[in-house]
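Supplementary Methods, section 5.1.

A reviewer requested that the exact input to the structure prediction be made available. We therefore reproduce it here, unchanged from the version used in the analyses.
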Amino acid sequence: MGWRIPRIRDWTPERKEAAITTAVVTFTLLIFLVLLITMASILISSESLRLENAVERAFSEVIAALRYGDEPLPDTMKERNVLGFGYYTPNGMPIFIWGDAYRVLPFSGFTDSSELSDTLISFNRDTDVIECMRYAQSISLDPENIFRRDGGGAIEFPDIIYLSFDASSFMDRIALTRIVSLCSISVIIILYFIILHILSQNRKFRDALRQQESLVRLGEAARTLTHEIKNPLSAIAIQVAILKREVRPEVLPDVMVIDHEAGRLRQLTDKVSDFLRNPVGHAVPLDLSEEVRDLLPLFNGRVRASGPFPDEAPIEFDKDKLRSVLENLMKNAIEACEGLQIDAEIEVRRCDDGFFRVFVRDRGCGINESDMKRLFDPFFTTKIHGSGIGLALSQRFLRAAGGSLRLYPREGGGTVAEAAIPERRVL
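The structure derived from this sequence is encoded token-by-token as follows.
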């Protein structure tokens, strides 16, 4: 059978809402990312253009200053962040050099990687220095102009002009733009997942709230129902007691059936009442190991102790509710082993996390994976004669005391019921 995409009309309102919300958040994220990347690209491109413009301006202003001699050469260079300047012959030999300029031009170190078509540029990323080489034919120079050096004779007309330029301020701004952009993208992506998590938690909270409201309504209905059932049960119990004394012996088994079934109904109504009442009860100091040992004889050897129990296992729990939890878990284990020659087993263990754990193990047929999520739902049961309230009641009592209950498959077959109860700190 092939995989099929669910049709829109098959979706529940909750699924539709989740899909629409996720799509809106994702679309908003993509818009922000596109705008941010576009803005970063524009800023980086703008800074690169400013850098190339600064190189072009430096070329022009240095040559103009040298041509007209308006200011001293060192001042001209420093004001324009020029580190080195030189005139060279076509084979790279120097005619005039100043500052950090090459004695011989390394032509292989220059590439035509800029928008300045008449300039070859080499960029050193370690020092943030840009080196530029330009052929004199592309510069408007008057061949008759005299560039004087030390008051001496005229310098011949150059074939190649070299300039090294300090671009650290530009590169710092480009690097800062990239870092800020990456950080902003990371923050937006993190916020995206945080928003999705918040939306998911919000949906779970609303689902839990709806379930709570349903449980409240169910509780009110169950409370009314159990009250109404107890009244006729009391009348039935009285009449059954009279019938036991009055009927003929051959009819007595039929009366006992009525008495037995009425007793089952009383037990069910009592459990429902317990589920609806305050689950904490009256908590008192107890010894968990002692409580388990006291219960074992009631099961006629069908539940055996696994390993030694802790000598002292101090807890704080309502005695009747603890007994109800332990009896229910052991009874379930015995019923799971029904018809087998293997007994259920129980273990009490002190754990390092501040909890005592009670493990009740059986070798039954186990629990279907499809039933795992519903094990603790009130009135859910896979047994023919079960009420489906025992596990829900046990979990409720344990949670009210700060503990927990979980069931999982046992290695080699069967089920493990693990009840965690907080250890009572003895002063």
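The mean pLDDT is 76. These observations are discussed further in the main text.
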